[in-house]
């Protein structure tokens, strides 16, 4: 008796939208599958990440401490949260365009590995000539 092996369809075989649809219309493309993040507050000072909108590219992180980033300086900001990202992925702490354009605040060294379970810190650089203090990173 012979058995016939069938291969699963490749991901590239699925039809892809050729243009961006109006997201207010009924025929808008469905969002990509969501991978779940596990987030743990490590203190009462921690604020859980939030999404700015339903289609936001990521989550907003928040400082758990009052910290001033000196003009022309840098600071490591404590979020007091721990994040577990799905295996096969990584988390990325990226600069926020509003902080960059309005206050010249940039983010550095922002990778969260899938096996990292420690406190998430955010390295911020202040490229302006004024000290900066803010809560949303």
Automatic annotation (TrEMBL):
Region named Disordered: 1-30
EC number: 3.6.1.23
Catalytic activity field: dUTP + H2O = dUMP + diphosphate + H(+)
Cofactor(s) required, per the database record: Mg(2+)
Keywords for this protein: Hydrolase, Magnesium, Metal-binding, Nucleotide metabolism
Protein family: Belongs to the dUTPase family.
Occurrences of domain dUTPase-like (ranges): 45-133
GO terms of biological process kind: dUMP biosynthetic process; dUTP catabolic process
Function in brief: Involved in nucleotide metabolism via production of dUMP, the immediate precursor of thymidine nucleotides, and decreases the intracellular concentration of dUTP so that uracil cannot be incorporated into DNA.
Protein name, entry field: Deoxyuridine 5'-triphosphate nucleotidohydrolase
Top EC category: hydrolase
PANTHER family: DEOXYURIDINE 5'-TRIPHOSPHATE NUCLEOTIDOHYDROLASE
Keyword Iron: no
Biochemical pathway: Pyrimidine metabolism; dUMP biosynthesis; dUMP from dCTP (dUTP route): step 2/2
Molecular function, one GO term: magnesium ion binding
Quaternary structure and interacting proteins, as annotated: Homotrimer.
Origin superkingdom: Eukaryota
């Amino acid at each position: 008796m012979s058995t016939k092996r069938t291969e699963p369809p490749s991901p590239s075989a699925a039809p892809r939208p050729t243009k961006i649809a109006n997201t207010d219309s009924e025929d808008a493309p469905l969002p990509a599958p969501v991978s779940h993040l596990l987030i743990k507050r490590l203190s009462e000072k921690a604020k859980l990440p939030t999404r700015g909108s339903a289609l936001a590219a990521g989550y907003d992180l928040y400082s758990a401490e009052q910290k001033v980033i000196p003009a022309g300086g840098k600071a490591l900001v404590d979020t007091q949260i721990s994040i577990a990202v799905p295996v096969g992925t990584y988390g990325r702490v990226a600069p926020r365009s509003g902080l960059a354009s309005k206050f010249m605040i940039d983010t550095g060294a922002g990778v969260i590995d899938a096996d990292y379970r420690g406190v998430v810190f955010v390295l911020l650089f202040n490229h302006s000539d004024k000290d900066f203090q803010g809560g949303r990173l």
